[in-house]
Structures are given as C-alpha cells and as structure tokens.
C-alpha cells in the first residue's frame, strides 16, 4: 500500500516513567504494516492536536502515578476536560479507544486511565474499541499485547464507518477488503489482567507484526540435561516451540564522539518541569541498630538559603546517579572504558525507518558518555521485550540467541515474567548471562528509559525546624538470586548511604540531632507537593495515624507541626491524636523512641506500638502488627471516624500492610455499626472520597 493511501488516526499518550510512551511508539510502528498512519503526540502537547474538532479515531495510552493520579504529562489535559461548564455532547463526535496502565498493588488501579475514560464518556465520546487495563503487578504485556493485536481490526472498522458516514460508499482499497466480512461496526475485546491467550483473527497482523522463528532455522547446541528452566536455559515446551517474536524495532539513534572539551550540563537541566535546588546534607543519623534486618537512615537538608517550601505530609524528589562501579562495568563490557570522559553528540540516524524519530528528551545535546550513563539512563531498568528483541541481533552465539528470542516471545511469556521481571534483572545481568551479546551504545540510548528521580516523604515541619528538611528511608537491598548472581543496593538509597557514611553515628536514635557532624555534600532536589496528605485544616478535628517502619516518617512532621501550633495558639481547641506504630524488634528498629516526648506534652494523646519479631512470655500474646492493635481499639477508631468526623492516615508498605489495615478498618466499621461487610466497605469508600481516609504508600 502506498504511503499516500494510508489512513490516519490520532495517537495520544501520557507517561510518568516512559512505559506509556514506549507502548504508543510500538503502536505507531506497527500501524504502517496495517495500512494506517499514527499521528502521535503527548497529551501535554495540546497545541498539536484538537479533540474538539478531531474527526479521525483517537487511541489513548495513559499510565497512573502516585496512589491513583494521572501522570504529570496529563494534568493539564485532565484539568481541561474536567471543566464543569462543558456540555454533555462536547465530544459526541469523538471515537476513541483507551489503554490504561496501572498496578493492582495500589488501591486506585489504573485510575489515570479510568478518570480520562469516564470523563470522555460523560462528555459524549464513543468507544470504537473496548478499554484495556494493564496490570504491572502481573505483567503489562498480558493485556497490552492482545489489546494491540485487536486494535487494527477495530480501527479499520471505525475508519470504514467514518467513510460511510461521510457518504463515501466506494471501496476503500485494501482497508475495506480486510473488513468486508466483519459483522459489527464496533469490534469488542474484553480485556483484563487475567488474559492468558488470544487467537489472532487478523492473519495480516501475524504476517507483518510478528516474526515466526522456527527451531530448524538455528543450529542449536545439544540441550542440557537439567529439567529446570533458568534465565539462560529453557525446557520443553518452550525449547521445542516455533516462536512468535516481536518485529525488530528500527534503529534511530546515532552517537558521534567528539574531540572537543567542555563541561557537562547542570543536573537541573535534566528536570523539565520543576525548579531544582542544590542543598547540603547537614546531618545523618542511623536510626536502627547494626543487627537490625533493615538499615534506616535520617538525613537533614539545609534549605534555608532556597525558595524550597513544604508542608508536613508533602514529598520531594532526589536526583540520583547510577552506581559508579556499575557504570564502569557497563563501559568495560561495551569496550568503551577509555572513552568514558569523551564528549558525545546524540542525533537521529539519517534515513531511519522509525516514524517521527527524535532524540530522547532526557539525553543532553552534548555531554560526556559517562554523564549519560551515570545521570540520564536507568541502567537498572528491567528490559522490555522490544529491548530483548533488539539484543537478539547483537548476539553471536546460536544458543544465547535462541534463548533471548524465547524470552521476548509469546511462548516464553512465563519465563520472561519469572526470570527477568520478577527477578529484577537488568541490562548488566543480561550481558553477563549472554556474553556473546555486544550491543551498541546507540541501542542502549534507544531502549533504556530515563533515570527517574526518587520520591521521599518529608519527615519534619518548617514551623518546628525552620530552614531544615528531614527525611527517613531504609537502605534498599536486593539479594543475589539465580537470575542475578550479585546483590545490590537501591539506586538512590545506596548512593545516599555511601554519600553520608562519614557522618553516621549508629544507634543515636534521635529526633533532635544537635551535635552530629556537619557535611559539605550536596544533593539536588525538587518539590513534589501532596494535594491531600496534610493535617486537617480544622485543628479541633481528631485524627489517627498508622505508620509502621519508615511509614512513620510523615507523622513525625505532623506531630512537630502540631506541637508548635499548640505552643503558639494556647487558646485553640485541638482534637485528639492517635499513632499506631510497629516494627520488628523494640531494641533494634524502634525508629523514634522520643515519641514519648510528644505524649508527655500532649501533642500525641494515644501511642500504640507493636513488635512483630519479639518473643513474649505473656499468657496472652501481644499484638504483632498495626492492624492487630487497631482491632483492639475498635470502639475508639469507629468513634473518631463515624461520630467525630476524624481523619485516618496510612503510610508505608502497600503490599504487606496497607491492604491489611484497610481490611481491619472494614471489620471495625462492620462490627461497631452492626452492619455487613459490604455496607462497611461503602462507608470506607465514602471516607476515601471525602479525603478523610488518606494513603501515602509504596510497593
């Protein structure tokens, strides 16, 4: 089909970490093989498209960030369509299909996509294709792949219907022929994260978008006798299957080394939409004992000479680098150890077949190679299947080549999930596991996502400690595994721990850190305000805080702020405050024993603590977890929430705590109201809607 006859559709994406954009690019890349052309834009580029006048079908790919917010790049768009003055037929002319990305570990799964989908429906827009909701908890590809496969037939039908509406009933070349037997104008495809397989109805998709790799195309070495699969080894049926593998992504980046010298860009240039502040780390305290399972650190930043402002409950982001030794190791494997300090120029490859190719925005126009690998690319990212497909072409050993093909194939989906995704395998792990794989630098820039700044909850009050910002974190540890033979620390937490190592005073365990050593080390930060996770505006309203482990962090700021308010406004009425805290061992990781001070001055009216790993000789075993203590305080919890209009805050681990706390609250409401669980769940949903049950959680 010639270029002029390709039918257009509008493709919009909104991304936080690059996944939605990568999926949109995959859709645009496949479109050409189906006689279609995607006009692709970020939702934030509102000057480049106009949904009010759009006649062609629209495809939207949108992620979710935080605890259910649209990504930053969708905020302006969402604000615009949420305008209450828009009439219910505002988008009556619009046909669209939407793919939402999310993580079911979080309460508001795919809420970014759901919000846009719901509002477009309210404004009269019509689906030409069912909404897909992909779950990163089990693997986005389980929904994304079949959703894209079914998209082409639905698009062609929508375009055909559009032609008929315009009175053009003549045959529409090859597009018409591929849908002449379609019984409906709208092609329905019900998708959920439980999707296991999909029969491809459009054989054109199989022929053009997927390569069939047969076993006899490769001279395989004799299969090992091991019966257990691994990252580098498969077993039947995968090892004996013909494979459906993705089409090879076109190369589009060219890297040129330059002789010129100069300076690398300032880190602030890496953050497009925020004001960054370079601030000194003035103090560091280790809050846990040396024999604690996790190491928790408290850092203090000096923000006195900046315009940085925050409220207790807010978060902020730290711009962090990749691990120096990992960067050096990657340079060595690439054969570029001697060129790390050379300046490079990154350009779009002339004659590339990639539609709308442009240099990634997170790559500076001019910097050293080491700067790009250290500050710009997430070298720890779990490789996507498109990346694995590209690595196949860089691999010389036949057995290694076959295994990489399996891992990116439909047939190897389970192996990909187990040995790569769930094992947190990164590029370095792959290059060690498949030593004949020698990718180019340009390939890494094409496929590695942007190195994201890391978000932390503020653990202080500007009212209590003017010009100072505290935050608390666990140093993340990734133990070695069969797929990843080396242990690693978290990218940001490991870097911060190394940065402040000279300052650390183990087990000082203090809120007030006077007397600790000062530092000249600086880090770059930018604000990430939380619109809801704040103290009640009315100080007389009671509230409950649940924060085990480092989840206590924002509540220290709450209590510091409340203490200062009490000191400054002795005539105010203050509601009661409850704090539920838990950790493993009272003597090893009770992070803030000075909470007792807040109790003594009545800033905190009730403190309930539990220790999950401490043994007890009591006849009745003490509660182990925060949800257990909540149940023991059921009458007070129900009173605060139901009778006194109180607030309930939860901060900490989503997977192992927040859901259990939610279940406990439902049980409490059900018991105290003498109602069934369904009714209690409705009450909890109403509390969430009213912003009185608030979460700051992570997985």
From TrEMBL:
What is said about its interaction partners and assembly?
Forms a multiprotein complex with MMACHC, MMADHC and MTR.
Catalytic reaction equation(s): 2 cob(II)alamin + A + 2 H2O + 2 H(+) = 2 aquacob(III)alamin + AH2
Instruction: Write the protein's name.
Output: Methionine synthase reductase
Give the species this sequence originates from: Hylia prasina (green hylia)
| Any Gene Ontology biological process | homocysteine metabolic process
InterPro entries for this protein: CysJ-like_FAD-binding (IPR003097), FAD-bd_FR_type (IPR017927), Flavdoxin-like (IPR001094), Flavodoxin/NO_synth (IPR008254), Flavoprot_Pyr_Nucl_cyt_Rdtase (IPR001709), Flavoprotein-like_sf (IPR029039), FNR_nucleotide-bd (IPR039261), NADPH_Cyt_P450_Rdtase_alpha (IPR023173)
* Cell compartment(s), UniProt: Cytoplasm
Question: Mostly located where?
Answer: cytoplasm
**FAD-binding FR-type domain boundaries:** 274-536
**Cross-referenced Pfam families:** FAD_binding_1, Flavodoxin_1, NAD_binding_1
Q: Record's superkingdom?
A: Eukaryota
SUPFAM superfamilies given for it?
Answer: Ferredoxin reductase-like, C-terminal NADP-linked domain (SSF52343), Flavoproteins (SSF52218), Riboflavin synthase domain-like (SSF63380)
- Named cofactor requirement(s): FAD; FMN
């Amino acid at each position: 089909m010639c270029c002029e006859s390709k039918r257009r559709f509008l493709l919009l994406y909104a991304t936080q970490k690059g996944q939605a954009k990568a999926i949109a690019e995959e859709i645009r890349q496949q479109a050409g093989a189906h006689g279609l052309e995607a006009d692709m834009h970020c939702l934030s580029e509102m000057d480049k498209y106009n949904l009010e006048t759009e006649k062609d079908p629209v495809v939207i790919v949108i992620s979710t960030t935080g605890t259910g917010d649209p990504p930053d790049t969708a905020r302006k768009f969402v604000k615009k369509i949420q305008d209450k003055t828009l009439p219910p037929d505002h988008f009556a002319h619009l046909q669209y299909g939407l793919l939402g990305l999310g993580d079911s570990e979080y309460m508001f799964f795919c809420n970014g996509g759901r919000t846009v989908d719901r509002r477009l429906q309210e404004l009269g827009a019509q689906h030409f294709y069912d909404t897909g909701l992909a779950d990163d908890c089990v693997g986005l590809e389980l929904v994304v792949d079949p959703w894209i496969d079914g998209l082409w037939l639905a698009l062609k039908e929508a375009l055909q219907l559009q032609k008929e509406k315009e009175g053009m009933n003549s045959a529409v070349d090859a597009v018409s022929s591929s849908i002449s037997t379609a019984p409906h104008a709208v092609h329905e495809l019900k998708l959920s994260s439980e999707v296991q397989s999909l029969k491809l109805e459009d054989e054109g998709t199989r022929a053009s978008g997927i390569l069939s790799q047969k076993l006899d195309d490769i001279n395989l070495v004799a299969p090992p006798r091991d019966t257990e699969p691994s990252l580098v080894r498969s077993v039947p049926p995968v090892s004996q299957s013909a494979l459906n593998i993705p089409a090879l992504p076109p190369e589009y980046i060219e890297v040129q080394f330059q002789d010129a010298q100069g300076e690398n860009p300032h880190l602030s240039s890496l953050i497009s939409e925020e004001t960054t502040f370079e601030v000194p780390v003035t103090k560091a305290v280790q809050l846990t004992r040396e024999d604690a399972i996790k190491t928790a650190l408290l850092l203090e930043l000096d923000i006195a000479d900046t315009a940085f402002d925050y409220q207790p409950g807010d978060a902020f982001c730290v711009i962090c680098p990749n691990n120096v030794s990992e960067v050096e190791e990657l340079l060595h494997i690439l054969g570029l150890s001697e060129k790390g300090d050379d300046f490079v120029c990154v350009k779009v490859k002339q004659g590339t077949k990639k539609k709308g190719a442009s240099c990634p925005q997170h790559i500076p126009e001019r910097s050293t190679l080491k700067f790009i690998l250290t500050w710009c690319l997430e070298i720890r990212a779990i490789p996507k299947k498109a990346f694995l497909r590209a690595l196949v072409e860089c691999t010389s050993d036949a057995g290694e080549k076959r295994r990489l093909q399996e891992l990116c194939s439909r047939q190897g989906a389970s192996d990909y999930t187990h040995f790569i995704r769930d094992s947190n395998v990164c590029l370095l792990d792959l290059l060690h596991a498949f030593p004949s794989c020698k990718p180019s630098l340009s390939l890494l820039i094409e496929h590695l996502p942007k190195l994201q700044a890391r978000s932390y909850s503020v653990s202080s009050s500007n009212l209590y400690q003017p010009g100072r910002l505290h935050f608390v974190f666990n140093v993340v540890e990734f133990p070695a595994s069969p797929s990843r033979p080396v242990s690693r620390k978290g990218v940001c937490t490991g870097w911060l721990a190394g940065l402040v190592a000279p300052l650390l005073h183990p087990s000082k365990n203090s809120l007030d850190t006077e007397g600790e050593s000062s530092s000249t080390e600086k880090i770059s930060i930018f604000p990430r305000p939380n619109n809801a996770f704040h103290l009640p505006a009315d100080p007389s309203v009671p509230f409950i805080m649940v924060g085990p482990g480092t989840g206590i962090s924002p509540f220290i700021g709450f209590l510091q702020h409340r203490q200062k308010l009490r000191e400054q406004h002795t005539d105010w009425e203050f509601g009661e405050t409850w704090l539920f805290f838990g950790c493993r061992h009272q003597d090893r990781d009770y992070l803030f024993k000075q909470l007792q001070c807040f109790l003594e001055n009545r800033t905190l009216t009730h403190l309930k603590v539990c220790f999950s790993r401490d043994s007890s000789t009591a006849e009745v075993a003490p509660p182990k977890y925060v949800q257990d203590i909540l149940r023991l305080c059921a009458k007070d919890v129900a009173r605060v929430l139901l009778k006194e209009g109180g607030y309930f805050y939860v901060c900490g681990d989503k997977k192992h705590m927040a859901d259990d706390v939610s279940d406990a609250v439902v049980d409490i409401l059900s018991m105290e109201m003498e109602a069934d669980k369904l009714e209690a769940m409705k009450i909890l949903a109403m509390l969430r809607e009213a912003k009185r049950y608030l979460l700051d959680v992570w997985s």
